[in-house]
């Protein structure tokens, strides 16, 4: 893309780099900034601590920003928006490619406190009931045909009522 005039950036997780290249002795030849991206802001691997990630900006390890309620997803979103605004201010007509890959979908699943509080109790009824309600709502909205039958739950998924209170947390 770069050779076709695009400005390019990668934000978030990158697990395309061999482990031996990510350490201090690594030669960085496969880092995003060395394989075609003008900008990289994120971390190596598929998962990281969302509150204190080991961050890379370009080819430099940086300290995790020390701000109250820091969460990497919000940080990388801010960094992406900042980069997009910068691209637009330099040359609004230049095409760009921004690769946005949040790591929050991988373990460890660490939601910001405000989201935990917002959804507290929302799913307490358990996945059996939630699954049934979601299925009925899809029928009501016309997403699935009215005569659709909810398939049986896979055998490897335990019934919600069989779990201990600790497992339900």
UniProtKB/TrEMBL annotation:
InterPro entries: Alkaline_phosphatase_core_sf, Sulfatase, Sulfatase_N. Belongs to the sulfatase family. SUPFAM superfamilies: Alkaline phosphatase-like. Coiled coil: none annotated. This is Sulfatase-like hydrolase/transferase. Residues 1-131 form the Sulfatase N-terminal domain. It comes from Vibrio alginolyticus. Pfam families: Sulfatase. It comes from the Bacteria. GO terms for molecular function: hydrolase activity; transferase activity. Keywords: Hydrolase, Transferase.
